[in-house]
C-alpha cells in the first residue's frame, strides 16, 4: 500500500518514506516508521496509545509511554520539516489529507514501486531455506565480482594516468582494548544528552553500548583522515559511479574539496574502499583506533574539551561554531586525535562501519526496537552532535541505502 500526502509519501512494500520532492528521507525507520504507517492506515480516525502498543509489541512484553511516542513524533517532524503527526484528546492523527492507493499512478515523479498490500501465501521453512541459500550464493558472487572489477580498475587507473587518493594510513597494533560502556557510563551519557537535547534523548539508544568488556583484535591499518570530496571525486571519475545526492554536492556548506564526503550510502562506502583495495572497518577496529586500550571517553581522553572536535549541541538543527566550524570542517583540521594519531573520530561526520545493528555479545539485559530491521551502523558523532554523542563508544544506525549531510566514512586494510 502507498500513502500519499502533500508533504510525504510512504510505501509499505519497501518501508521507505519520500519527501514532497520525491527524495527518500533519512531518519524515519524502526518505530518512527511504524508509527507513521499505522496512523496513515487509520486515517482519518487516528490511533491511541493502546493501538500503538499493540502494533509495536503484540506480545505485550513492553509498555510504550506517551513520552516515547512524542519523541518519535518529534523525530518525524524534524526529518520532514513539518508537524505531520498531531496529538489531541489522546489520539494521534495525520495533519492534512491522506490518499491511499495500491499502485503508483503513471503521472507520479516518485520512483516506481510495487504494492505490498497483497496477502502472501504461507511458505514452508524448507522453501525459505532454499531461497536464502540461493540469495546467499548470488550475494557471494556479486561481492567476488565487485572485488575483481575494482582490483582490475586500479590497474587501469595506473595505466591511464588517473590520480589515486593519497594513501595516508596508521597502524593500529594487535591486542586487547576496552570496548563498550558500563551502566554507570551510559547513565552519565544520558544526563549529558538531556542537558543539551531534552526529550530527544532515548535511553535505549545508549544502552546499545552495553556491556563494557575487553576485546582482542589483530593489527590493521586505518585511514588517518575521513574520505574527502576530492578523494571521492577521483573515485567517481575512475568508475563512473553515480555522484552523491545533489542536495549535498551543490551545497557550499559541504562541497569543499577538503571537506569530508557526505550523502553517500553504506554501499557507496563499501564500493569506494574496494576501489582502493581496502574495506570498511568493523565496529571493533573503529573503536580501538578511536579510544586506544584503556577505555577513553573521547579520543583525546576522558575530560570534555569543546575546542578539540567539530561538534554541535545535538537535536535539530544543533549547530554551533564554538570549535571554529558551523558545518563540516576540512578533514584533519581539528584536534580530536586518538592515541594512535587517527583524526576526526569524534565529530565532523558520522562514519559508516562494516556491521549490522545488533546487541553486543553479553548484552542480555537491554533490547532495542531497531535490532530487527537489519540497519547498519555508523560511529563517531557529527558537526551537530552534542558531547554525549561524540563519545567513542556511541553507536548509531541507519538503513544501508540512507544518505544525509552528516555521514561519511574512512577505510581500513589488513596489514
Write the layout of secondary structure elements.
Layout: E1 2-4, E2 8-11, E3 16-19, H1 30-41, H2 49-56, H3 66-80, E4 85-88, E5 91-94, E6 99-101, H4 125-160, E7 169-172, E8 175-179, H5 183-197, H6 203-206, E9 213-217, E10 220-223, H7 229-239, H8 246-249, H9 266-275, H10 283-291, E11 350-356, E12 376-379, E13 395-398, E14 407-408, E15 412-414
Parallel strand pairs: 11-14
Antiparallel strand pairs: 1-2, 1-6, 2-3, 4-5, 7-10, 8-9, 10-15, 11-12, 12-13
Helix pairs in contact: 1-3
Give an overview in words.
- With about 425 residues, the protein is of the alpha+beta class.
- About 30% of the residues lie in helices and about 15% in strands.
- The chain has ten helices and 15 strands.
- The strands form five sheets. A four-stranded antiparallel beta sheet has the order 3-2-1-6, with helices on one face. It has a four-stranded mixed beta sheet with strand order 13-12-11-14. Strands 7-10-15 form a three-stranded antiparallel beta sheet, with helices on one face.
- A hairpin with a 4-residue loop joins β2 (about 10) and β3 (about 15-20).
- The chain is globular and about 60 Å long.
